[in-house]
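User: For documentation purposes, I need each entry recorded in a consistent format: the amino acid sequence on its own, followed directly by the corresponding structure tokens. There are two entries in this batch. Please keep commentary to a minimum and don't merge the entries.

Assistant: Recorded as requested. Entry 1:
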Amino acid sequence: MKTNNIAYIDGANLHKGIASLGWTLDYRRFKVWLAEKYGVKSAYLFIGLIPKYKELYKYLQESGFTLVFKEVVYDGDGKPKGNCDADLVLQTMRDTYENKFDEAVIVASDGDYAGLVKFLMEKDKLFIIISPSNEKKCSILLKRTGAKIAYINDQRLMLKIAQK
């Protein structure tokens, strides 16, 4: 297995996908699992920047993630929107062209990443997609790429935060 791999993680997609499955991800365990199972040396976590979550950001950094912040805007209902898709794609493309990794691990269930997945497959630079959603909710556009997809829920017992 190649061991200079980078994970590109859509933070909101990961959080919402896991929450919809009814459990809470232990990010420290997740980072170790990515390293051991997929040879991930670096893990970029793309996330909206909301000041009240600074303790969360500190925890994620201490867990080994490189946070890439997106400025957040608020919709009419006051809900934060920090769409990181374009930033994740741009970083992945930049790292591909600068030859910074052997293979990419994409953590998302969003069909907006299908084009990126196809590009990485053409370049023989995609290891796997890890879907935070279950098989039914993972985008058909990602499935149609023919890329290997793993479902994080299959690792639930190992990766969830233990209940006290």
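Entry 2:
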Amino acid sequence: MKTKIRNIHRPIHIFEPGAQYFITFTTYQKRKSLNTDEKKNVVRESIMNAIEKHGIVLNAWVILDNHFHLLISSISPEAIPQFIKFINSRISVLLNKMNNTPGVKNFYQYWDRIIRDEHDFYTKINYIHFNPVHHRYCKDPAEYVFSSYKEYLEKYGVEWLNDCINNHPLNTHRY
């Protein structure tokens, strides 16, 4: 019997009940295939439909031209891979329909990282919210519409967001 050797760049995804995960989806060959507001809206709407359908808690999100990040959790660990499969499939079908390119591969894979503690959680929120600034889409995260930053601004206010970045700064060697 032949044993399948797993690619080291595609690790096994392990999900724990109630754990929080930082998820990154990258477009196939890092193409800028999410480069219009209409395409980013397809991604956002697909994510919002999927969280409802699969009982996922979405803590933060951002959508850029060639990747998107999600900070999610679920009581049911099997819901997360179902959620990921659903959004990958749904987004691909809708993008291919928009581009009149049936069957084109839109995403290569996704990466997940379990959140280890409260500091890690808030650092990931900051990472997500400042990702458009890092990639030079804008100078202030409040300017970027395809992110949960404005939701946090409305819910918690600018003082809370400033405290969050001051108390949980981004890892500067990665950012």
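Summary note for entry 2:
The mean pLDDT is 89.
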